[in-house]
Fold this sequence. Notes:
The structure is a single chain. This protein is of the alpha/beta class. It has 8 helices and 6 strands; from the N terminus they run H-H-H-H-E-H-E-H-E-H-H-E-E-E. It has helices at residues 7-25, 41-57, 62-78, 81-105, 117-124, 158-164, 190-193, 196-201, and strands spanning 112-114, 128-130, 168-169, 202-207, 216-221, 231-232. Strands 2-1-3-5-4-6 form a 6-stranded mixed sheet. Helix 4 (81-105) packs parallel to helix 5 (117-124). It is elongated, with a radius of gyration of 22 Å.
Amino acid sequence: WIPRGSATLRSALTGLLAHAAYVVYVGGDYMALARFFVPVLPIAYYLGSLGARRCFARQRDNWVLLALTALLALQWTQSERAQIFGEQRFFVERWAALGRHFRAVFPPTPKVAISPIGAFGYESQLPLVDILGLTNARVLEAVPDLSISMKGHHRYDAEYVLEAAPEAVVLFNGVRQPDTGRWEVNPWERTLYEHPRFAAEYQAVATPIQGSGDPLLFYLRRGEPLPAGASLRGR
């Protein structure tokens, strides 16, 4: 399906297959077509379009397109897309709502420590302390905690977060557990949450979040003024 003599396209196909094989080898990702596959999706779409065009040009290859379409349809059905994508949408909308709220009630300079940095960071435009280390080399040096099953969440460093001295810390992914109604600390946040300095330097604060029915419990550095609408809470 790749034109003869096209070394660039053949290299792209080789890299795409190698990347996909590695993702499958390490256990994939619980989010459909997310994170690990996102970097290669443009290449996959482009190469797939070239292959489809060639199949249409050669009528005898149409069965290949039919087989691939049936395979994708089966995979789409088995993924229970409504549940998976619905869950993703819930988290992204929640984190975006948190970011908009922090941007509205905080001045533009305070740092916020948080794990889900994407939607929150985009909406808040505040300086972030990335608990999982995607934006710094310090956490990359931490020994991976292989007891954590979620991909990409194996490294964390409580000392790094405390040294950065963020004005606010958002734990629990900013979401209360729907089955228990409790704020539950993630495994990669536990050493930070249980650190003596954290208890001494931060206090729990609750605040309503516009556009999201659930309020937020986060931690504010002692001495910082309470944001508008927030109130102190027990730990």
